[in-house]
Design a protein that fits this description.
Elements: H1 3-14, H2 19-32, H3 37-49, H4 53-66, H5 71-83, H6 87-101, H7 107-118, H8 122-131, H9 140-153, H10 156-172, H11 175-186, H12 193-196, H13 198-212, E1 223-226, H14 230-237, E2 245-249, E3 259-261, E4 273-277, E5 290-301, E6 304-316, H15 345-355, E7 360-362, H16 363-372, H17 377-397, H18 400-404, E8 416-424, E9 430-436, H19 442-445, H20 449-463, H21 472-485, E10 490-494
Antiparallel strand pairs: 1-4, 2-3, 2-4, 5-6, 5-8, 6-7, 6-10, 8-9
Amino acid sequence: MNITEKIEQLKDQVLPFRPFEAMEEAETLVNANPRDAEPHFFLASIYKLLNRHHDAALTFEKTYELENSAHPALFNAGICFNELGQPDQALKFFDRAAEAAGTNSILPSLLGALSLHRAGDPEEAIHRYQRVMNFAPTNASLLYGLMAAERDRGGDTAAEQYVKQIQKGFSRYPESKIDLVTFHQNYDYAGWKAWADKDNFITSTRSWASKAKHSLPNFLPKSYIIPQDTHLLKDDSKLKKNPIWIVKSTTLSASIGTHLISDLSLLKADPNWIVQEYIANPYLIKGRKFAMRTYLLVSSYDPVRAYLFRGGTAKVALRKYTTDPESFHLTSVHTEHTRPDRHRKDLKDALASDIGKKGWWTIDQLFIYLEKEGLQPTEIWNQACVIARTLIEAMVDTNFFEQHAPKNICHGYGPKFIALDLILDDNGKLWLSEIERGPTYNRIFNSDGTEKMTFDGLANMAVCPFGKETDRETQISIAKKHEDLHSDRFTLIYG
């Protein structure tokens, strides 16, 4: 088996289930092939997945040293330094990646200019954006960057010209809408990990509650960071009858590593794990547990403006619900590629028979079903709005947006989606399971005809001139017009 075949085997058979084992085998490959760029890039990618960003950045750089055509390695190193909160280092690597890529990719140049804008230098950002205009004159993300930078340096006339170019591109190249939103979704480094990464979220909410001198919101399950909260977890467990705990990795996604325990002696004291009180009385769809995913849209940082998007999915479990810790009921069709029984045709056929061919529902379909079952979708949606509003208010109270956006930068951040994973219990109460700062949503927005209109509206909202940042009445007026235009999709929850 050659190196490429070995890496493909690790990607398919080991990495999704045992990422740390995949890392060790990748390290062995690197040590055995010190002059081969391919295993270095693979190892760097695993480090990045496990949030070992410094190790990842160094290994990506080594990859480029071994193979000068591998400019994506420099680009990824820049992303790692942004995750580490080192924008100056990130910019150096974006510049190196842009030089190495030439006209083959404008992405490093885009991120370099964006980094400068967000650091408080829209003038230099404009200069860098304009360098690549000849290569991509219709690129929506490039035009958006120029528009935003011009607004922040006071060039309103130039900004409006870029708005017209973007809108013209939307009509001529409809795919540019998704390109624009995806760009900002993937490359928004405004410290969102402080509120979205599982362990950081717990720390942030605790800090906020302490500062505000009130208890944590009642939609949050009790959560513990391991190992520092181990003693607190054990003390609390003594007060509960037959408790069930869900254990989640703080570094992995797609439910990799997630499992249930009822005996705390089985809990490993390793770092990078959190433990949450398990919602053992979930509302079931035909005997199956589901997670409701909707999206919080932050469209403006100064002033803060946020919407809750009434869309998304009900991700339905592959197996019927049970509290057996050995079961796979946590597996949803959305993440089943990470599970050993993903190829079980009998399970997939049974799910399709219960839920439908796709194995998941849109939020609209879910609400229709719940209403037939006697629940009130409006009340459930109101709970979701309260959860989303509380999160934004907590961020405002802790000066999150002020800390990550300089005073002279009002337009440097594009539309940002944060996914909210919600669990409905059999009492009709919503619980916030977790937040995802970089969700995928293309499938959701393209799931039916109505979603396309919504996505178009989102893209148009991104380039809408909201007026002067100090003119709050104009800001609010225009925001409410957008809310009215998309009243069945977006609810303005803050602003």
